[in-house]
Specification:
about 200 residues, alpha+beta, Ribosomal Protein S5, domain 2, four-stranded mixed sheet
């Protein structure tokens, strides 16, 4: 059974069309209007083995906030929708990922209860055309829309590009693990019988 979702969201600030396949091959067709953000989302796709088609038209003449935050909201909604009842998934995933000077820890619980612990120490205001404060906004939006518990923590790092990219890659590796089907799990992995 395909674990896919298609979502469109239109507001006065952004227009977003997204298609997500959790069981993909790492193919991305992504355009948000913010080059570095596109680069991060392409990393998300490639290293998580997800397929993602994403087109965002946002009010970038204001700034990048609405584009990044709303993309996170829609991606989180798509993850939640594609997971369905969550039967058979591993639920938990984690990764410690290095990228040159950066070392990032990421842990995920697809519990249905949103919570974000974010600890990336970014010292530059921007990387490319992405305001670095929007990295947290993106992960916050994904977390609360998907209903996941996400911890993302910098263990080491100097270069802001490396820290952010390692953060996205650690996130997608952890999400890939958490969404993976395990034949030993015949229902949902919870003593309560639900993960909502």
């Amino acid at each position: 059974m395909a674990r896919m979702a298609e979502i469109q969201r239109n507001t006065k600030e952004t227009s977003i069309a997204l298609q997500l396949n959790l069981d993909g091959e790492g193919n991305g067709d992504i355009n948000t209007g913010i080059g570095f953000f596109d680069h991060m989302l392409n990393s998300f796709v490639k290293h998580g083995f997800f397929d993602l088609k994403l087109n965002v038209s946002g009010d970038l003449y204001v700034d990048g906030h609405h584009t990044v935050e709303d993309t996170g909201i829609v991606l989180g909604q798509a993850i939640k929708k594609a997971l369905g009842d969550k039967k058979g998934i591993k639920r938990y995933g984690s990764a410690i990922l290095p990228m040159d000077d950066a070392l990032i820890l990421c842990a995920i619980d697809l519990s249905g209860r949103p919570y974000l612990v974010y600890d990336l120490n970014l010292t530059a205001e921007r990387v490319g055309y992405l305001d670095t404060e929007l990295v947290r906004e993106f992960f916050y939006a994904v977390t609360y829309s998907a209903g996941m518990n996400l911890h993302i923590k910098m263990l080491n790092g100097i270069n802001n590009h490396h820290i952010i990219e390692a953060g996205f890659k650690a996130f997608d590796k952890a999400l890939d693990e958490a969404t993976r089907l395990d034949p030993r799990i015949t229902d949902v992995l919870s003593t309560k019988g639900t993960v909502d």
